[in-house]
Amino acid sequence: MSQHDDSVSPPPRPARLAHALTRFNAWVGRSVAWATLLMVLVTFFVVLLRYGFNLGFIAMQESIAWLHALVFLLGAAWTLGQDGHVRVDIFYRRMSPRHRHWVDLLGTLFLLVPMCVFIFVIGWDYVASSWALHEASPEAGGLPGVWLLKTLLLIMPALVLLQGLAQLLTSVLVLRGHLPADATPGGHPPHDEVI
Question: What are the structural domain ranges in the chain?
Fold first, then answer.
C-alpha cells in the first residue's frame, strides 16, 4: 500500500501564486493596521497637549493624516483580498459561486485593472515632481518627506493590481474546473460566509 494518496494532487501553480499574492497583501495590510492604534494615540496626545497644556506641534498633527493615508492606501489590497470592499450585491449574493467567479473575472479585467492603471499613470508625474523637489510640508515645523507619503499613491494601485491578479487567476482556475467553485485566492470562506 502506498504512503500517499495519488488522487489528491497539489494545487496548480497559478493557484499557489494567487495564494502567495494574497498572503503578501494580508501581511502588508495587517502590518499597516497597527498604524490605526498609533493614529489614535497620537490624536489623543494632540488633543491633550492642545486643550490641557495649550501646546501644539504641527508635525504631530500632520502625522495623523500620514497614518490615515498609510492605513487606507496600503490596506486597500488586503481589504480586496478579504472581499471587504463595498459593493452593490443585490444580484451577486444570489448568484451561484461559478457565476460569481464570472463577475469577479470580468470586473477585475474591465473595472479593477483599468482603474488601477489609470491611478498609477495619472499619479506618476505628481509623485515624480514631488520626488524631484524632495517635497516637505509647507508648514513651519511640519513633516519632511512629503514625497514619501505621495509615493503611496503609486504603491496602492500596484498592490491592488497584485490582488486583482490573484482574483483573476482564482476565477480562471475555478471556471476551467481546476479549483472548487467556492475557492478564493486567500483561502478565506466563500463570499456569502465572510463576516
Answer: 13-186
Site of grid cell 501581511: 27
pLDDT digits (tens, 9 = 90+) for 69-120: 999 999 999 999 988 877 767 788 888 889 989 999 999 999 999 999 999 9
Task: Output the DSSP codes for 107-173.
Answer: HIIIIIHHHHHHHHHHHHHHHHHHHHHT---SSTT--S-HHHHHHHHHHHHHHHHHHHHHHHHHHHH
Radius of gyration, alpha carbons of the chain = 21
Phi, psi of 49 (to 5 degrees): -65, -40
Residue 10 contacts residue 17 (beta carbons within 8 Å): no
First-to-last CA distance in the chain?
Answer: 43
CA distance linking residue 3 with residue 133, whole number of Å: 64
